[in-house]
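dumping the sequnces here before i forget
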Amino acid sequence: MPENEPVKINRPLHWFAVLTALFTFLLLGAGGLVTSHGAGMSVPDWPNSYGYNMFLFPPSKWIGGIFYEHTHRLIASGVGLMTTILAVWLWLKDSRPWMHWVGVGAFLLVVAQGILGGLRVVLVDAQLGIFHAIIGQLFFVLTCAMALFTSRWWLNNQRWSSRFSVSGSADSLKAELQLRGLRTLVLFTTILIFCQLIVGATMRQQHAGLAIPDFPLAYGKFWPDTNAAAVQSYNEHRMAVVAENPITAFQIILQMVHRIVALAIGVLTGACAWQARRRLGKKDPLAKLTLFWLALILGQILLGAATIWSNKAADVATAHVLGGALSLVTGALWYIIAFRRSAVLPKIASAITISGAYGTTPAMTANK
Amino acid sequence: MKNFSLLLSFAVLVVVDAPMLRAADIIGAITLQGTPPPEVPYTPLMNDPTCGAMYTNTPTTHFYVVGPNHGLGDVVVYLKDVTGKSTGASQRPVVLDQKGCLYQPQILAIQTGQKLLVKNSDSCIHNVDVQPTVPGNPTSNQMQPPGSPELTFTFPKPEMFIKFKCDVHPWMFAWVSVFDSPYYCLSDKEGKFVIKNVPPGKYVVEADHRKLGALTQDVEVKDSDVTVNFTFKIK
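..and the predicted 3d for all of it:
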Protein backbone atom coordinates (compact mmCIF):
# COMPACT_ATOMS: atom_id res chain seq x y z
CA MET A 1 0.00 0.00 0.00
CA PRO A 2 1.35 3.47 -0.78
CA GLU A 3 2.64 5.25 2.30
CA ASN A 4 0.10 8.03 2.40
CA GLU A 5 -2.97 6.12 1.38
CA PRO A 6 -5.49 6.34 4.20
CA VAL A 7 -6.26 3.11 6.02
CA LYS A 8 -9.86 2.04 5.69
CA ILE A 9 -11.68 2.09 9.00
CA ASN A 10 -13.09 -1.31 9.88
CA ARG A 11 -15.56 -0.82 12.70
CA PRO A 12 -16.42 -4.50 13.33
CA LEU A 13 -12.71 -5.29 13.53
CA HIS A 14 -12.14 -2.44 15.95
CA TRP A 15 -15.00 -3.42 18.23
CA PHE A 16 -13.84 -7.00 18.18
CA ALA A 17 -10.39 -5.79 19.26
CA VAL A 18 -12.04 -3.77 22.05
CA LEU A 19 -13.99 -6.85 23.12
CA THR A 20 -10.79 -8.90 23.16
CA ALA A 21 -9.14 -6.29 25.38
CA LEU A 22 -12.16 -6.29 27.72
CA PHE A 23 -12.12 -10.07 27.97
CA THR A 24 -8.39 -9.95 28.63
CA PHE A 25 -9.09 -7.57 31.51
CA LEU A 26 -11.71 -10.02 32.78
CA LEU A 27 -9.15 -12.79 32.41
CA LEU A 28 -6.64 -10.83 34.48
CA GLY A 29 -9.28 -10.49 37.17
CA ALA A 30 -10.04 -14.21 37.05
CA GLY A 31 -6.32 -15.00 37.27
CA GLY A 32 -5.98 -12.58 40.18
CA LEU A 33 -8.80 -14.36 42.01
CA VAL A 34 -7.08 -17.72 41.47
CA THR A 35 -3.92 -16.51 43.22
CA SER A 36 -5.83 -14.52 45.85
CA HIS A 37 -7.79 -17.64 46.78
CA GLY A 38 -4.70 -19.86 46.67
CA ALA A 39 -6.47 -22.01 44.10
CA GLY A 40 -3.80 -22.22 41.40
CA MET A 41 -3.25 -25.93 41.91
CA SER A 42 -6.83 -26.91 42.66
CA VAL A 43 -7.18 -28.64 39.28
CA PRO A 44 -4.12 -30.89 39.15
CA ASP A 45 -4.31 -31.86 35.49
CA TRP A 46 -4.06 -29.80 32.32
CA PRO A 47 -5.37 -29.34 29.66
CA ASN A 48 -8.03 -31.65 31.10
CA SER A 49 -9.88 -30.85 34.29
CA TYR A 50 -10.11 -33.80 36.68
CA GLY A 51 -9.90 -36.09 33.68
CA TYR A 52 -12.71 -34.35 31.81
CA ASN A 53 -12.33 -32.40 28.62
CA MET A 54 -12.06 -28.86 29.94
CA PHE A 55 -15.24 -27.75 28.19
CA LEU A 56 -17.25 -30.73 29.42
CA PHE A 57 -16.26 -30.54 33.08
CA PRO A 58 -19.62 -30.66 34.95
CA PRO A 59 -20.44 -27.40 36.78
CA SER A 60 -21.52 -29.46 39.80
CA LYS A 61 -17.84 -30.19 40.37
CA TRP A 62 -16.78 -26.55 40.30
CA ILE A 63 -16.47 -26.37 44.07
CA GLY A 64 -14.10 -24.38 46.28
CA GLY A 65 -10.89 -23.38 44.55
CA ILE A 66 -11.83 -25.42 41.47
CA PHE A 67 -14.39 -22.75 40.57
CA TYR A 68 -11.73 -20.03 40.33
CA GLU A 69 -9.16 -22.12 38.49
CA HIS A 70 -11.61 -23.68 36.04
CA THR A 71 -13.38 -20.43 35.14
CA HIS A 72 -9.94 -18.87 34.64
CA ARG A 73 -9.13 -21.64 32.16
CA LEU A 74 -12.43 -21.21 30.33
CA ILE A 75 -12.06 -17.44 30.03
CA ALA A 76 -8.45 -17.95 28.92
CA SER A 77 -9.65 -20.33 26.21
CA GLY A 78 -12.13 -17.68 25.08
CA VAL A 79 -9.45 -15.01 24.96
CA GLY A 80 -7.17 -17.39 23.07
CA LEU A 81 -9.89 -17.98 20.49
CA MET A 82 -10.69 -14.27 20.19
CA THR A 83 -7.01 -13.44 19.75
CA THR A 84 -6.71 -16.05 17.00
CA ILE A 85 -9.73 -14.62 15.18
CA LEU A 86 -8.36 -11.11 15.63
CA ALA A 87 -4.97 -12.11 14.22
CA VAL A 88 -6.55 -13.74 11.17
CA TRP A 89 -8.90 -10.80 10.68
CA LEU A 90 -6.04 -8.31 10.83
CA TRP A 91 -4.01 -10.38 8.41
CA LEU A 92 -6.86 -10.51 5.91
CA LYS A 93 -8.46 -7.12 6.26
CA ASP A 94 -6.02 -4.60 7.69
CA SER A 95 -3.97 -2.92 4.98
CA ARG A 96 -1.04 -2.09 7.27
CA PRO A 97 1.61 -4.83 7.06
CA TRP A 98 2.95 -4.04 10.53
CA MET A 99 -0.52 -4.65 11.99
CA HIS A 100 -0.43 -8.14 10.50
CA TRP A 101 2.62 -8.86 12.59
CA VAL A 102 1.13 -7.27 15.68
CA GLY A 103 -1.73 -9.75 15.31
CA VAL A 104 0.68 -12.63 14.84
CA GLY A 105 2.65 -11.47 17.89
CA ALA A 106 -0.54 -11.38 19.98
CA PHE A 107 -1.44 -14.88 18.82
CA LEU A 108 2.00 -16.26 19.71
CA LEU A 109 1.95 -14.50 23.07
CA VAL A 110 -1.47 -15.85 24.04
CA VAL A 111 -0.42 -19.38 23.04
CA ALA A 112 2.81 -19.07 25.05
CA GLN A 113 0.84 -17.69 27.99
CA GLY A 114 -1.61 -20.59 27.88
CA ILE A 115 1.19 -23.15 27.78
CA LEU A 116 3.00 -21.37 30.61
CA GLY A 117 -0.15 -21.48 32.73
CA GLY A 118 -0.51 -25.19 32.00
CA LEU A 119 3.13 -25.91 32.79
CA ARG A 120 2.82 -24.07 36.08
CA VAL A 121 0.16 -26.64 36.98
CA VAL A 122 1.65 -29.86 35.64
CA LEU A 123 5.24 -29.07 36.68
CA VAL A 124 4.05 -27.84 40.10
CA ASP A 125 6.40 -24.89 39.74
CA ALA A 126 5.34 -21.75 41.58
CA GLN A 127 8.13 -19.70 39.95
CA LEU A 128 6.40 -20.09 36.58
CA GLY A 129 3.42 -18.34 38.13
CA ILE A 130 5.44 -15.12 38.36
CA PHE A 131 6.15 -15.17 34.62
CA HIS A 132 2.55 -16.12 33.91
CA ALA A 133 1.36 -13.07 35.85
CA ILE A 134 3.81 -10.70 34.16
CA ILE A 135 3.11 -11.92 30.63
CA GLY A 136 -0.60 -11.56 31.37
CA GLN A 137 -0.05 -7.86 32.06
CA LEU A 138 1.98 -7.41 28.87
CA PHE A 139 -0.65 -9.21 26.83
CA PHE A 140 -3.31 -6.87 28.20
CA VAL A 141 -1.23 -3.88 27.04
CA LEU A 142 -0.95 -5.47 23.60
CA THR A 143 -4.68 -6.09 23.23
CA CYS A 144 -5.45 -2.50 24.31
CA ALA A 145 -2.89 -1.22 21.80
CA MET A 146 -4.55 -3.29 19.07
CA ALA A 147 -7.89 -1.76 19.97
CA LEU A 148 -6.25 1.66 19.74
CA PHE A 149 -4.53 0.97 16.40
CA THR A 150 -7.79 -0.14 14.81
CA SER A 151 -9.83 2.75 16.17
CA ARG A 152 -11.29 5.50 14.06
CA TRP A 153 -9.57 7.93 16.39
CA TRP A 154 -6.18 6.48 15.49
CA LEU A 155 -6.90 6.05 11.78
CA ASN A 156 -8.56 9.38 11.20
CA ASN A 157 -5.83 11.31 9.43
CA GLN A 158 -7.98 14.40 9.33
CA ARG A 159 -8.05 14.49 13.13
CA TRP A 160 -4.28 14.43 13.36
CA SER A 161 -4.02 16.99 10.53
CA SER A 162 -6.50 19.36 12.10
CA ARG A 163 -4.68 19.11 15.37
CA PHE A 164 -1.54 20.45 13.71
CA SER A 165 -3.41 23.05 11.72
CA VAL A 166 -4.72 24.37 15.01
CA SER A 167 -1.26 24.25 16.52
CA GLY A 168 0.23 25.99 13.59
CA SER A 169 1.42 28.84 15.75
CA ALA A 170 4.98 29.09 17.02
CA ASP A 171 3.87 28.59 20.61
CA SER A 172 1.85 25.51 19.78
CA LEU A 173 4.63 24.01 17.78
CA LYS A 174 6.99 24.65 20.67
CA ALA A 175 4.55 22.91 22.95
CA GLU A 176 4.43 19.95 20.61
CA LEU A 177 8.19 19.77 20.60
CA GLN A 178 8.18 19.88 24.39
CA LEU A 179 6.05 16.75 24.29
CA ARG A 180 9.22 14.81 23.66
CA GLY A 181 10.66 15.56 27.12
CA LEU A 182 7.36 14.66 28.71
CA ARG A 183 7.27 11.49 26.71
CA THR A 184 10.54 10.37 28.28
CA LEU A 185 9.14 11.05 31.75
CA VAL A 186 6.01 9.03 31.01
CA LEU A 187 8.08 6.20 29.55
CA PHE A 188 10.26 6.08 32.65
CA THR A 189 7.18 6.07 34.91
CA THR A 190 5.54 3.32 32.85
CA ILE A 191 8.67 1.17 33.07
CA LEU A 192 8.71 1.76 36.82
CA ILE A 193 5.08 0.63 37.00
CA PHE A 194 6.02 -2.51 35.10
CA CYS A 195 8.87 -3.17 37.56
CA GLN A 196 6.37 -2.61 40.36
CA LEU A 197 4.09 -5.22 38.82
CA ILE A 198 6.99 -7.70 38.78
CA VAL A 199 7.60 -7.04 42.48
CA GLY A 200 3.88 -7.44 43.16
CA ALA A 201 3.67 -10.69 41.20
CA THR A 202 6.71 -12.02 43.08
CA MET A 203 5.10 -11.15 46.41
CA ARG A 204 1.83 -12.82 45.47
CA GLN A 205 3.44 -15.98 44.15
CA GLN A 206 5.38 -16.51 47.39
CA HIS A 207 2.10 -17.61 48.98
CA ALA A 208 3.31 -16.23 52.27
CA GLY A 209 0.39 -13.97 53.03
CA LEU A 210 1.16 -10.45 54.18
CA ALA A 211 4.84 -10.07 54.94
CA ILE A 212 3.96 -6.85 56.78
CA PRO A 213 0.51 -6.73 58.36
CA ASP A 214 0.22 -2.99 59.06
CA PHE A 215 0.21 0.22 57.04
CA PRO A 216 1.41 2.97 56.82
CA LEU A 217 3.87 1.76 59.47
CA ALA A 218 5.59 -1.60 59.20
CA TYR A 219 5.43 -3.68 62.38
CA GLY A 220 4.88 -0.37 64.14
CA LYS A 221 8.00 1.26 62.69
CA PHE A 222 9.00 3.29 59.67
CA TRP A 223 11.41 0.50 58.75
CA PRO A 224 10.82 -2.93 60.32
CA ASP A 225 13.45 -5.05 62.03
CA THR A 226 14.55 -7.84 59.73
CA ASN A 227 17.01 -9.67 61.96
CA ALA A 228 16.48 -13.39 62.56
CA ALA A 229 14.95 -12.94 66.02
CA ALA A 230 12.48 -10.34 64.78
CA VAL A 231 11.41 -12.46 61.79
CA GLN A 232 10.99 -15.46 64.11
CA SER A 233 8.80 -13.36 66.36
CA TYR A 234 6.68 -12.16 63.42
CA ASN A 235 6.12 -15.77 62.34
CA GLU A 236 5.13 -16.83 65.85
CA HIS A 237 2.33 -14.30 65.84
CA ARG A 238 1.06 -14.78 62.29
CA MET A 239 -2.12 -16.78 62.49
CA ALA A 240 -4.04 -17.71 59.38
CA VAL A 241 -6.34 -20.50 58.34
CA VAL A 242 -4.50 -21.02 55.08
CA ALA A 243 -1.17 -22.76 54.65
CA GLU A 244 1.00 -19.70 54.54
CA ASN A 245 4.71 -20.23 54.26
CA PRO A 246 6.71 -18.53 57.01
CA ILE A 247 7.82 -15.08 55.99
CA THR A 248 11.46 -14.22 55.49
CA ALA A 249 13.49 -11.03 55.78
CA PHE A 250 13.61 -10.94 51.98
CA GLN A 251 9.82 -10.87 51.75
CA ILE A 252 9.60 -8.07 54.29
CA ILE A 253 12.15 -6.02 52.36
CA LEU A 254 10.31 -6.81 49.12
CA GLN A 255 7.12 -5.34 50.51
CA MET A 256 9.00 -2.26 51.72
CA VAL A 257 10.43 -1.85 48.21
CA HIS A 258 6.89 -2.18 46.82
CA ARG A 259 5.74 0.61 49.14
CA ILE A 260 8.62 2.91 48.28
CA VAL A 261 8.25 2.34 44.53
CA ALA A 262 4.50 3.02 44.87
CA LEU A 263 5.35 6.37 46.45
CA ALA A 264 7.83 7.12 43.66
CA ILE A 265 5.23 6.25 41.02
CA GLY A 266 2.73 8.53 42.75
CA VAL A 267 5.21 11.42 42.66
CA LEU A 268 6.19 10.72 39.05
CA THR A 269 2.63 10.53 37.75
CA GLY A 270 1.95 13.77 39.64
CA ALA A 271 4.93 15.30 37.85
CA CYS A 272 3.65 13.96 34.51
CA ALA A 273 0.21 15.49 35.09
CA TRP A 274 1.70 18.82 36.12
CA GLN A 275 4.15 18.91 33.23
CA ALA A 276 1.50 17.86 30.70
CA ARG A 277 -0.83 20.61 31.88
CA ARG A 278 1.98 23.18 31.81
CA ARG A 279 3.38 22.17 28.44
CA LEU A 280 0.29 21.08 26.52
CA GLY A 281 -2.47 23.04 28.16
CA LYS A 282 -5.26 21.65 30.28
CA LYS A 283 -7.54 20.94 27.30
CA ASP A 284 -5.06 18.70 25.54
CA PRO A 285 -6.25 15.05 25.53
CA LEU A 286 -2.84 13.87 26.68
CA ALA A 287 -2.92 16.30 29.61
CA LYS A 288 -6.35 14.94 30.54
CA LEU A 289 -5.04 11.40 30.24
CA THR A 290 -2.19 12.12 32.67
CA LEU A 291 -4.73 13.47 35.17
CA PHE A 292 -6.72 10.24 34.81
CA TRP A 293 -3.46 8.33 35.26
CA LEU A 294 -2.68 10.21 38.45
CA ALA A 295 -6.16 9.48 39.81
CA LEU A 296 -5.69 5.82 38.90
CA ILE A 297 -2.36 5.65 40.73
CA LEU A 298 -3.77 7.33 43.83
CA GLY A 299 -6.67 4.86 43.78
CA GLN A 300 -4.18 2.07 43.33
CA ILE A 301 -2.17 3.19 46.37
CA LEU A 302 -5.40 3.24 48.36
CA LEU A 303 -6.21 -0.28 47.15
CA GLY A 304 -2.73 -1.40 48.20
CA ALA A 305 -3.38 -0.04 51.68
CA ALA A 306 -6.82 -1.68 51.70
CA THR A 307 -5.20 -4.99 50.78
CA ILE A 308 -3.20 -4.80 53.99
CA TRP A 309 -6.00 -3.42 56.16
CA SER A 310 -8.33 -6.19 54.94
CA ASN A 311 -5.68 -8.84 55.71
CA LYS A 312 -5.33 -9.52 52.00
CA ALA A 313 -9.01 -10.12 51.29
CA ALA A 314 -9.21 -11.89 47.94
CA ASP A 315 -11.47 -9.38 46.21
CA VAL A 316 -9.49 -6.37 47.42
CA ALA A 317 -6.15 -7.93 46.47
CA THR A 318 -7.53 -8.79 43.02
CA ALA A 319 -8.81 -5.25 42.55
CA HIS A 320 -5.27 -4.11 43.36
CA VAL A 321 -3.95 -6.39 40.59
CA LEU A 322 -6.44 -4.96 38.13
CA GLY A 323 -5.56 -1.41 39.18
CA GLY A 324 -1.94 -2.22 38.41
CA ALA A 325 -2.92 -3.48 34.96
CA LEU A 326 -4.90 -0.32 34.20
CA SER A 327 -2.02 1.85 35.43
CA LEU A 328 0.41 0.07 33.15
CA VAL A 329 -1.83 0.20 30.11
CA THR A 330 -2.63 3.89 30.62
CA GLY A 331 1.05 4.80 30.68
CA ALA A 332 1.78 2.57 27.68
CA LEU A 333 -1.08 3.95 25.56
CA TRP A 334 -0.18 7.53 26.52
CA TYR A 335 3.32 6.90 25.28
CA ILE A 336 2.11 5.31 22.03
CA ILE A 337 -0.21 8.25 21.29
CA ALA A 338 2.48 10.79 22.14
CA PHE A 339 4.96 8.91 20.01
CA ARG A 340 2.62 9.11 17.05
CA ARG A 341 2.13 12.81 17.60
CA SER A 342 5.84 13.42 17.96
CA ALA A 343 6.60 11.31 14.91
CA VAL A 344 4.81 13.77 12.65
CA LEU A 345 6.53 16.83 14.13
CA PRO A 346 9.68 16.91 11.95
CA LYS A 347 7.57 16.83 8.81
CA ILE A 348 5.26 19.51 10.16
CA ALA A 349 8.20 21.66 11.17
CA SER A 350 9.73 21.11 7.75
CA ALA A 351 6.50 22.11 6.02
CA ILE A 352 6.25 25.22 8.16
CA THR A 353 9.83 26.20 7.35
CA ILE A 354 9.20 25.78 3.62
CA SER A 355 5.97 27.76 3.72
CA GLY A 356 7.82 30.46 5.67
CA ALA A 357 4.91 31.25 7.91
CA TYR A 358 3.82 29.51 11.11
CA GLY A 359 0.28 30.67 10.66
CA THR A 360 -0.39 28.66 7.55
CA THR A 361 -1.75 25.16 7.68
CA PRO A 362 1.09 22.76 6.98
CA ALA A 363 0.65 20.00 4.49
CA MET A 364 -0.05 16.89 6.47
CA THR A 365 2.05 14.11 5.04
CA ALA A 366 3.18 12.29 8.11
CA ASN A 367 0.15 10.23 9.04
CA LYS A 368 0.60 6.61 8.31
CA MET B 1 40.64 -80.42 79.16
CA LYS B 2 42.52 -78.22 81.59
CA ASN B 3 43.06 -75.66 78.89
CA PHE B 4 39.39 -75.70 77.96
CA SER B 5 38.35 -75.08 81.61
CA LEU B 6 40.73 -72.17 81.79
CA LEU B 7 39.35 -70.67 78.59
CA LEU B 8 35.76 -71.07 79.78
CA SER B 9 36.54 -69.37 83.11
CA PHE B 10 38.13 -66.46 81.27
CA ALA B 11 35.13 -66.13 78.97
CA VAL B 12 32.71 -66.05 81.92
CA LEU B 13 34.82 -63.39 83.62
CA VAL B 14 34.78 -61.22 80.50
CA VAL B 15 31.01 -61.48 80.09
CA VAL B 16 30.32 -60.69 83.75
CA ASP B 17 32.72 -57.73 83.93
CA ALA B 18 31.82 -56.15 80.53
CA PRO B 19 29.32 -53.19 80.61
CA MET B 20 25.92 -53.91 79.08
CA LEU B 21 25.79 -51.97 75.79
CA ARG B 22 22.03 -51.63 75.40
CA ALA B 23 19.89 -48.99 73.76
CA ALA B 24 18.13 -46.45 75.96
CA ASP B 25 15.26 -43.99 75.60
CA ILE B 26 15.49 -40.23 75.49
CA ILE B 27 12.51 -38.88 77.36
CA GLY B 28 11.43 -35.39 78.20
CA ALA B 29 8.85 -32.67 78.10
CA ILE B 30 8.29 -29.54 76.08
CA THR B 31 7.01 -26.46 77.85
CA LEU B 32 5.71 -23.21 76.46
CA GLN B 33 6.41 -19.97 78.29
CA GLY B 34 4.21 -17.04 77.49
CA THR B 35 0.77 -16.70 75.98
CA PRO B 36 0.36 -17.81 72.39
CA PRO B 37 -1.77 -15.75 70.02
CA PRO B 38 -5.41 -16.86 69.85
CA GLU B 39 -6.24 -19.56 67.34
CA VAL B 40 -8.19 -18.52 64.26
CA PRO B 41 -11.66 -19.89 63.47
CA TYR B 42 -11.96 -21.73 60.15
CA THR B 43 -14.50 -19.27 58.78
CA PRO B 44 -13.86 -20.17 55.11
CA LEU B 45 -14.57 -23.80 55.98
CA MET B 46 -17.93 -22.87 57.47
CA ASN B 47 -18.71 -20.72 54.43
CA ASP B 48 -18.23 -23.73 52.16
CA PRO B 49 -21.63 -25.41 51.71
CA THR B 50 -20.29 -28.98 51.75
CA CYS B 51 -17.64 -28.61 54.43
CA GLY B 52 -19.61 -26.23 56.63
CA ALA B 53 -22.47 -28.72 56.82
CA MET B 54 -20.17 -31.15 58.67
CA TYR B 55 -19.87 -28.87 61.72
CA THR B 56 -22.20 -27.26 64.17
CA ASN B 57 -19.47 -25.15 65.80
CA THR B 58 -16.71 -23.45 63.87
CA PRO B 59 -13.45 -25.36 64.32
CA THR B 60 -10.29 -23.38 64.93
CA THR B 61 -6.66 -23.74 63.96
CA HIS B 62 -4.41 -25.55 66.41
CA PHE B 63 -0.97 -24.14 65.81
CA TYR B 64 -0.30 -24.07 69.55
CA VAL B 65 -1.40 -27.28 71.28
CA VAL B 66 -0.87 -26.33 74.91
CA GLY B 67 -1.69 -28.66 77.82
CA PRO B 68 -2.86 -27.69 81.30
CA ASN B 69 0.71 -27.44 82.66
CA HIS B 70 1.97 -25.46 79.70
CA GLY B 71 3.10 -28.63 77.96
CA LEU B 72 3.44 -28.04 74.23
CA GLY B 73 2.20 -30.66 71.78
CA ASP B 74 2.94 -31.25 68.09
CA VAL B 75 6.65 -30.58 68.51
CA VAL B 76 8.90 -32.74 66.36
CA VAL B 77 11.80 -34.07 68.45
CA TYR B 78 14.65 -35.92 66.78
CA LEU B 79 18.35 -36.74 66.82
CA LYS B 80 20.05 -34.28 64.58
CA ASP B 81 22.59 -35.40 61.96
CA VAL B 82 21.80 -39.09 62.32
CA THR B 83 21.45 -40.33 58.77
CA GLY B 84 21.59 -43.59 56.85
CA LYS B 85 19.79 -45.45 59.62
CA SER B 86 16.32 -45.47 58.13
CA THR B 87 14.17 -48.52 58.69
CA GLY B 88 11.32 -46.87 56.84
CA ALA B 89 10.98 -49.49 54.12
CA SER B 90 10.08 -52.16 56.69
CA GLN B 91 7.82 -49.96 58.82
CA ARG B 92 4.05 -49.84 58.69
CA PRO B 93 2.63 -47.05 56.55
CA VAL B 94 1.50 -43.86 58.25
CA VAL B 95 -1.97 -42.56 57.41
CA LEU B 96 -2.89 -38.94 56.78
CA ASP B 97 -6.64 -38.49 56.52
CA GLN B 98 -8.74 -35.76 54.97
CA LYS B 99 -11.73 -35.73 57.24
CA GLY B 100 -14.22 -32.96 57.87
CA CYS B 101 -12.37 -30.88 55.27
CA LEU B 102 -9.30 -30.82 57.49
CA TYR B 103 -6.08 -32.81 57.47
CA GLN B 104 -5.82 -35.18 60.43
CA PRO B 105 -3.28 -35.10 61.93
CA GLN B 106 -1.85 -31.78 60.92
CA ILE B 107 1.71 -32.54 62.06
CA LEU B 108 3.30 -35.92 61.54
CA ALA B 109 6.65 -37.58 60.92
CA ILE B 110 7.87 -40.54 58.91
CA GLN B 111 11.15 -42.08 57.81
CA THR B 112 12.74 -41.96 54.40
CA GLY B 113 11.34 -44.80 52.32
CA GLN B 114 8.36 -45.24 54.61
CA LYS B 115 4.95 -45.17 52.97
CA LEU B 116 2.60 -42.33 53.74
CA LEU B 117 -0.99 -43.09 52.79
CA VAL B 118 -3.28 -40.13 52.20
CA LYS B 119 -6.96 -40.95 52.20
CA ASN B 120 -10.12 -39.01 51.61
CA SER B 121 -12.81 -39.78 54.16
CA ASP B 122 -14.93 -36.86 53.00
CA SER B 123 -17.82 -36.88 50.56
CA CYS B 124 -16.27 -34.10 48.51
CA ILE B 125 -13.33 -33.89 46.13
CA HIS B 126 -9.86 -32.92 47.40
CA ASN B 127 -6.53 -32.52 45.71
CA VAL B 128 -3.28 -33.41 47.44
CA ASP B 129 -0.63 -30.82 46.63
CA VAL B 130 2.75 -31.88 48.04
CA GLN B 131 5.41 -29.19 48.18
CA PRO B 132 8.80 -30.43 49.38
CA THR B 133 11.78 -28.13 48.96
CA VAL B 134 14.71 -30.53 49.31
CA PRO B 135 16.00 -31.73 45.91
CA GLY B 136 15.24 -35.40 45.43
CA ASN B 137 11.90 -35.27 47.21
CA PRO B 138 9.27 -35.23 44.49
CA THR B 139 6.63 -32.53 44.26
CA SER B 140 3.24 -33.74 43.16
CA ASN B 141 -0.34 -32.65 42.86
CA GLN B 142 -2.99 -35.35 42.57
CA MET B 143 -6.75 -35.36 42.60
CA GLN B 144 -8.61 -37.48 45.12
CA PRO B 145 -12.35 -37.67 44.55
CA PRO B 146 -14.49 -39.22 47.31
CA GLY B 147 -14.26 -42.99 47.44
CA SER B 148 -11.03 -43.11 45.48
CA PRO B 149 -8.14 -45.27 46.73
CA GLU B 150 -5.49 -43.97 49.08
CA LEU B 151 -2.62 -42.07 47.55
CA THR B 152 0.83 -43.36 48.48
CA PHE B 153 3.84 -41.11 49.01
CA THR B 154 7.44 -41.87 49.92
CA PHE B 155 10.33 -39.47 50.29
CA PRO B 156 13.98 -40.46 49.75
CA LYS B 157 15.52 -37.43 51.48
CA PRO B 158 15.12 -36.15 55.01
CA GLU B 159 13.24 -32.87 55.18
CA MET B 160 11.48 -30.86 57.84
CA PHE B 161 7.87 -29.84 57.42
CA ILE B 162 6.92 -30.81 53.89
CA LYS B 163 3.71 -29.00 53.11
CA PHE B 164 0.66 -31.04 52.08
CA LYS B 165 -2.27 -28.91 51.06
CA CYS B 166 -5.60 -29.01 49.35
CA ASP B 167 -6.13 -26.17 46.89
CA VAL B 168 -9.81 -26.90 46.49
CA HIS B 169 -10.12 -26.03 50.19
CA PRO B 170 -7.13 -23.75 50.86
CA TRP B 171 -7.47 -23.95 54.65
CA MET B 172 -6.58 -27.67 54.56
CA PHE B 173 -2.93 -28.36 55.19
CA ALA B 174 -0.54 -30.66 57.02
CA TRP B 175 3.20 -30.70 57.64
CA VAL B 176 5.12 -33.95 57.26
CA SER B 177 8.70 -34.27 58.49
CA VAL B 178 10.92 -36.99 57.05
CA PHE B 179 13.90 -38.49 58.89
CA ASP B 180 16.68 -40.78 57.79
CA SER B 181 16.56 -42.71 61.06
CA PRO B 182 13.94 -44.05 63.46
CA TYR B 183 15.06 -41.65 66.21
CA TYR B 184 12.28 -39.10 66.25
CA CYS B 185 8.87 -38.55 67.79
CA LEU B 186 6.15 -35.99 68.32
CA SER B 187 5.32 -34.48 71.68
CA ASP B 188 1.85 -35.36 72.95
CA LYS B 189 -0.83 -32.95 74.16
CA GLU B 190 0.93 -32.64 77.50
CA GLY B 191 4.25 -31.92 75.87
CA LYS B 192 5.78 -35.30 76.72
CA PHE B 193 7.94 -37.22 74.29
CA VAL B 194 10.01 -40.39 74.05
CA ILE B 195 12.64 -41.26 71.45
CA LYS B 196 13.01 -45.01 71.84
CA ASN B 197 15.94 -47.39 71.57
CA VAL B 198 18.71 -44.90 71.03
CA PRO B 199 22.13 -46.59 70.84
CA PRO B 200 24.79 -45.30 73.25
CA GLY B 201 26.61 -42.25 72.02
CA LYS B 202 26.67 -38.46 71.96
CA TYR B 203 23.86 -36.70 70.14
CA VAL B 204 22.24 -33.38 69.49
CA VAL B 205 18.52 -33.48 70.20
CA GLU B 206 16.44 -30.93 68.33
CA ALA B 207 12.89 -29.92 69.15
CA ASP B 208 11.19 -28.20 66.22
CA HIS B 209 7.85 -26.42 66.34
CA ARG B 210 6.24 -25.16 63.15
CA LYS B 211 5.69 -21.68 64.56
CA LEU B 212 8.27 -21.37 67.29
CA GLY B 213 11.34 -22.65 65.47
CA ALA B 214 13.96 -25.04 66.83
CA LEU B 215 15.80 -25.63 70.11
CA THR B 216 18.72 -28.03 70.54
CA GLN B 217 20.49 -29.77 73.38
CA ASP B 218 23.53 -32.06 73.57
CA VAL B 219 22.97 -35.42 75.22
CA GLU B 220 25.00 -38.51 75.90
CA VAL B 221 23.22 -41.82 75.98
CA LYS B 222 24.89 -44.51 78.06
CA ASP B 223 23.14 -47.45 79.61
CA SER B 224 20.04 -45.82 81.00
CA ASP B 225 17.29 -43.48 79.90
CA VAL B 226 18.18 -39.83 79.47
CA THR B 227 15.88 -36.94 80.26
CA VAL B 228 15.92 -33.79 78.15
CA ASN B 229 13.46 -30.94 78.58
CA PHE B 230 12.86 -27.99 76.29
CA THR B 231 11.21 -24.66 76.96
CA PHE B 232 9.91 -22.55 74.09
CA LYS B 233 9.23 -18.91 74.73
CA ILE B 234 6.77 -16.74 72.88
CA LYS B 235 8.70 -13.63 71.93
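Chain B touches chain A at residues 36-45, 48, 50, 61, 63, 124-125, 127, 129, 131, 139-143, 145, 163, 165-173, 211-213, 234-235 (CB under 8 Å).
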